[in-house]
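Severity: low
Component: inverse-folding endpoint
Summary: output formatting inconsistent between runs
Steps to reproduce: submit the following structure tokens with default settings.
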């Protein structure tokens, strides 16, 4: 096991299991992001690791960025934040030449959605729900969601669920190609680990080369998109809509965007 309380790691039969563990909703703060980055560095350098299983503790994958973190800072640069947190993490996942499986055990939203989409494969619990999340607090998209979500489900659907922040159900996610497989909530982690072990037993060198091909063919502009998202998020983060969205979230009331 890793020493981090918020991101736990364990190797089982060639699978590095990375568990996001920050109750109640596994929301990311700087400590958790740094620990996740360190876990993927371990996956890259450890020859025992042949595949990665990324999941969340409890009944939630992750609620994304903990907005309360930003309340402690007088002025937040969203661009700088993304450049040291989620952008490097997304690139780590895509450049890791080993298969990465996201086991989406419950709700996922915001930056955590981008992290799940960056993985090669996704298995979802039948109780999972997918929220884009950003626009609900007056922000634009980041963490490669603007690229990966429409690539998987189409621009029209991606726009609808970004603009409305309505949940995408587990069955919709399967039907639309957002996830590869569904499994019952009971025994879900065991099923996900079994699939990750099957991947670990495969030709991971060839898988890594195929991943290079996919990155070149479909995601050749990933770094540029991440950089542009950070630029746009800086604009959105300084707007009145974001201020109102965060305040409404903290007050537990509907936002009033004017």
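Observed output (run 2 of 3):
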């Amino acid at each position: 096991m890793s020493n981090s309380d918020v991101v736990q790691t364990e190797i089982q039969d060639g699978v590095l299991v990375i568990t996001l563990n920050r109750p109640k909703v596994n929301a990311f703060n700087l400590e958790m992001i740094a620990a996740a980055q360190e876990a993927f560095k371990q996956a890259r350098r450890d020859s025992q690791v042949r595949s990665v299983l990324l999941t969340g503790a409890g009944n939630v994958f992750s609620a994304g960025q903990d907005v309360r973190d930003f309340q402690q800072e007088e002025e937040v640069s969203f661009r700088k934040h993304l450049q040291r947190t989620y952008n490097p993490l997304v690139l780590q996942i895509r450049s890791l030449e080993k298969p990465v499986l996201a086991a989406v055990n419950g709700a996922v939203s915001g930056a955590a959605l981008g992290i799940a989409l960056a993985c090669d494969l996704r298995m979802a619990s039948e109780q999972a729900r997918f929220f884009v999340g950003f626009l609900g607090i007056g922000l634009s998209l980041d963490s490669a969601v603007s690229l990966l979500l429409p690539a998987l489900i189409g621009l029209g659907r991606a726009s609808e669920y970004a603009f409305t922040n309505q949940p995408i159900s587990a069955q919709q996610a399967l039907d639309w190609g957002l996830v590869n497989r569904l499994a019952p909530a009971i025994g879900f982690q065991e099923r996900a680990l079994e699939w990750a072990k099957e991947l670990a037993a495969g030709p991971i060198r060839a898988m890594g080369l195929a991943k290079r091909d996919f990155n070149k063919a479909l995601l050749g502009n990933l770094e540029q998109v991440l950089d542009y998202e950070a630029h746009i998020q800086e604009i959105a983060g300084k707007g009145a809509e974001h201020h109102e969205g965060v305040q409404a979230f903290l007050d537990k009331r509907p936002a009033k965007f004017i």
